[in-house]
Amino acid sequence: MAMRYRTLKDSSKESVGVYRSHIHGRGLFCNRDIEAGEMVIEYAGELIRSTLTDKRERYYDSRGIGCYMFKIDENFVVDATMRGNAARFINHSCEPNCYSKVVDILGHKHIIIFALRRIVQGEELTYDYKFPFEDVKIPCSCGSKKCRKYLN
Question: Domain residues for 63?
């Protein structure tokens, strides 16, 4: 896994790009064909304790800044809002072509995005955000035939 991760770090900048998305604002698209099971990109950012997420979300919201956070486990979250990479632009889809997985590489947890199936050059990369159920529903605009209408 460590060798595949090193290769990913070197190749992901050329493999993907951020462009206008029909799903939501900007999205992440592949610049080359990507095979099923292939590591696509790491979701990188600042590692913070889960207890700080609400405070950060309120801060970003009060300044009109879009928030990009990804939960690693009960204790830690990756905040990609200010220090993230292009992976933060991967949009949600109820019928995704990628999935996320927390992997341990040399004793450190990393969020890696993998291809669920073969993805052709120019296709938008998506994964299922799998937000927890809440009373306030977040509408989904993925446009997939299997759309659940809400992200949560």
Answer: 45-78
